[in-house]
Design a protein that fits this description.
Keywords: Hydrolase. One of its GO terms (molecular function) is N-carbamoylputrescine amidase activity. Pfam families: CN_hydrolase (PF00795). One of its GO terms (biological process) is putrescine biosynthetic process from arginine. This protein is of the alpha/beta class and 291 residues long. It has five helices and 15 strands. Strand 2, helix 2 and strand 3 form a beta-alpha-beta unit. The longest helix has 22 residues. The protein is globular and about 50 Å long.
Length: 291
């Protein structure tokens, strides 16, 4: 029986990049003190969610990966003996940027990075202005405690991404994310949106038989026009909620995942064994209409 304790850090952010990094490090320490072995930070945790506007000055928030933030977090990971999942704004080259998550192992080593594959372009989420789509493919990382798969925010909506990550051997799928409600929406719309967001991710757990951990930011941003809805959660491989955060508060929670359950779930609900891979070729088409 293999059990792993994962830490979810749900926090609000400010305009001060160093302040946010220091706060995140303090939260990692808090999670480690509660027994966490793997700690996941939310998407773009060193800044406000800046993609609400198309502003060239925001490119100044980007940094190399590895770089200053990963350097600081590697020291913490080694000191505490924890794996850290760190979502950052990557400057790859002059004029070339990605939404990227770095993975730091429990000995402080840099294991690599995943670049967000699916990039949104919605009102207040103008990510295509800033981010080049990922070109590293889907990734899993062999950490001290588990083989983990990383996907980022908009990736959450795509079963193809979670399926490929699971087929690569991920024991756990982590989703750093930043999503919220426009504050002029009605409450029914808010709840419908949140329920859709949570449901699609829980379905990835069920379809693949692996735990899913989703970590979202919280707080009002965009001059009060956006309330990031928090609601971070962890499920087992059958989609059962093991932890659900509030919509309003900063929370640092540690959840124990029993990775041996995946074999049980996959034996009794043999979705992987029953896959008709010989019939899936049309999935590579944009739309099946003969063109």
């Amino acid at each position: 029986m293999k059990k792993v304790k994962v830490g979810l850090v749900q926090m609000s952010c400010t305009k001060d990049k160093q302040e946010n990094l220091d706060k995140a490090i303090a939260k990692v320490r808090e999670a480690a003190a509660k027994g966490a072995q793997i700690v996941c930070l939310q998407e773009l945790f060193t800044s406000l969610y800046f993609c609400d506007v198309e502003d060239y000055d925001n490119f100044d928030l980007a940094e190399a990966i590895p770089g200053p933030s990963t350097d600081a977090l590697q020291v913490v990971a080694k000191e505490l003996g924890v794996v850290i999942i760190a979502s950052l704004f990557e400057k790859r080259a002059e004029g070339l940027y990605h939404n990227t998550t770095a993975v730091l192992d429990a000995d402080g080593s840099y294991l690599g990075k995943y670049r967000k594959m699916h990039i949104p372009d919605d009102p207040a989420f103008y990510e295509k202005f800033y981010f080049t789509p990922g070109d590293l493919g889907y990734k899993v990382f062999e950490t001290k405690f588990a083989k983990i798969g990383i996907l980022i925010c908009w990736d959450q909506w795509y079963p193809e991404a979670s399926r490929i990550t699971a087929l690569m051997g991920a024991d756990i799928m982590f989703y750093p994310t930043a999503i919220g409600w426009a504050t002029d929406q009605d409450e029914e719309t808010n709840q419908d949106q949140y329920n859709a967001w949570q449901t699609i991710q829980r379905s990835h757990a069920v379809a693949n038989g692996v735990p899913v951990v989703s970590v979202n930011r919280v707080g009002f941003e965009q001059d009060g026009a956006m309330k990031f809805w928090g609601g971070s959660f962890a499920t087992n491989g059958q989609g059962k909620l093991l932890y659900l955060a509030s919509h309003d508060l900063e929370e640092t929670e540690v959840v124990e995942l029993d990775l041996s359950e995946s074999d049980f779930f996959r034996k009794h609900w043999p979705f992987l064994r029953d896959r008709r891979i010989d019939s899936y070729q049309p999935i590579t088409k944009r739309y099946i209409d003969g063109d």
